[in-house]
Write a structure and sequence with these properties.
The protein is of the alpha+beta class and 461 residues long. The chain is built from 12 helices and 23 strands. The chain has a 7-stranded antiparallel β-sheet, with no helix packed on it. It has a 5-stranded antiparallel β-sheet with strand order 15-16-17-21-20.
Length: 461
Amino acid sequence: MKKEDLFRAIGGLETSRLAKTEEEAKMRSGMKFTRRLLIAAIITALLVGTAYAAARFFLFDSPQEMVQGLYGSGDSKAPTEVPDDQKPWPSSYMIPGYDKRPVDETVAQAMENWISPVGQTLENGGYKLTVDAYVYDSALKAGFVTLALEHPEPLDNETLHRQYDGEIIPGMLEFSQYGRAYILDDKTTDTTLALTYYFHCDMRSSSVFAITLDDHNAYQSNLEDAERFAQERRDYIAKRREELRQELTAEEAAARLQEESGFSGYTGEYDDYYYLAANEFDWSHAEEQSTEADLREEIEARLRQELTPEEAEAKLRALWGDGPVDATFGGRAEVIAEGAYFFLTNAELDARPQPNKLILTFPEDSVLPSKTFGGGDVLVNTLCVHANGEKYIPGGSVDITLNLRDGSDFVVTSDSVDNTLFRKGLWDDTTLDMLNSAVNVDDIVSVTLSHGDWSTTLMPD
């Protein structure tokens, strides 16, 4: 099986989960930057002149100060309507507001015990990164890590792609696990960028949690290359899309896309013809930019010699678990074995040490206080909400509200409010919301799920 066939098989199955993660998330003004940098990610920087050393815990003077610095604010912002000339009527979109809640004393004292200092540094191209401390929940495999990036010249908001809610995209930092970075204004100076990276770990993304410090100049060069690449891609898709319209009926286009990617039936700006053209471009450029190609081929060739297809599948199942493997490959036996070699190769590459890469190992028994509702359909801990909205609104997304003991509520998501730092769709069609506030789970009396005019309230288990 060719690699492009493998990617197509996996990609079609992942479409709905990616939709829950990004496409159906509330519109953020930084989304276009995220998409651009996803393109840039296929161009790997050449990394030189790095060093690794131990460093002190220095961003905050104490765990108490760290908790207050991250969760002590009661900041809020009203929803904002933003014009968009490229959008058909109405030619605007709504950026939801947010309403952070200051952490209460009980939770703050408990959080102080969850903080694990790291105090290690990476250096590259005149930049120095200190990985300061983290909090991690092993049940949901989610948490955050605080970092300080020292740099010789000031980094402006445009370079960091700063957004209205403090989200930034520090492109010289690479994280092996999905998440979002937010600036710590009180700790940031002209020559030190302080930030928190909130994340969720998924074995399918990487076998480790790694942070890599790229050379800044190489990153800027790669970003320029990525801009040219993105424009080339847009031009190709526009031209090829019109050609496909002349070559294929709508039914033929849908059938071909279904065979290639496992989905079809799209209309409008991003119709089946668009995805067929995008597939042609993407698969033709899938490997040409990778500087890891030789090493990857070497590892994969060795694995194919060492492991039979059945043994490779068994090893992947031992690494991921049966559920994620079956969900990722849709139970297609002819795809699983080939995919096993691919992902086992990824796991070896991720675990390889580099002078400019730090791999963090999290404890397996660091479970934060939590509370479940609706027979386990919703789990809330101090930092996150894990919900099985698919059970109630198949194929859609649900808004979530935490109803509190004092009669008030904390809106996680709604049409006008987004108190999440990110929402991620998981392999089992559930979602994980990372909250912008640290909540006291003992104060939650029920959870309301809603979608349009429908709603249901779940009681604690």
